[in-house]
Write a structure and sequence with these properties.
This protein is mainly α. It has a domain at 2-91. Helix content is 83%, strand content 0%. It contains 3 helices and no strands. It has helices at 2-50, 53-126, 149-156. Helix 1 (2-50) packs antiparallel against helix 2. The radius of gyration is 49 Å and the shape is rod-shaped. The protein starts with a helix and ends with a helix.
Amino acid sequence: MKNDLEEHKQIEEELRCNLEALRKQSNANKRERDVLAHQSTLILQGLTENSEGNDCMILLQEIEDLKRALEDDRNKHEDEINLLQEQLEDQETNAQIEILEERLKLAEAELQAAIERADKAEEKLRAPPIPPPLLLRPFYPLHITRQSSHLGEEEAK
C-alpha cells in the first residue's frame, strides 16, 4: 500500500512537470502567434501602399498557413494539457479511493473482532454458571464431655 502511494505520488509529480512544460510551450506558441499576427498586419499595410499583386498574395497565403499551423499547435497543446490535468485528477482520486478502501478494511477487521468478542460473551451467558470450588475445612473432632448427673439434679431443683 505504501509503495503504491509512493508510486502514485511519483506519477503525479511527473504529470505536474509535464503539465508545466506544456504550459510553457503553449505560452511560447501564443507569443509567436501574436508576433506573426503583428507581422501580417505590417505586411498588409505595406501591401496596400506598394500593391505588387502576386508577391503580396503569396506572402498572405504563407502567413495564413502559418497562422493555421500555429492555431493547430495551440489547440493540440491545450488538449494535451487538459488530458494531463484529467489524468492528474484521476490519480489523486485513485489514491484517495485506495486510502478509503484500506480504512474500510481496518474498520471491517475491527468490527469482526468486536462481533467475535460479543459472541464469546453471549456463550458465557448461556452456559450454566460454574459452581465455586468447595473449600474443605480441616476436621476437628469435637470433644464432648459428659457432666455428672449432679447437674441434672440441680437443674431439677
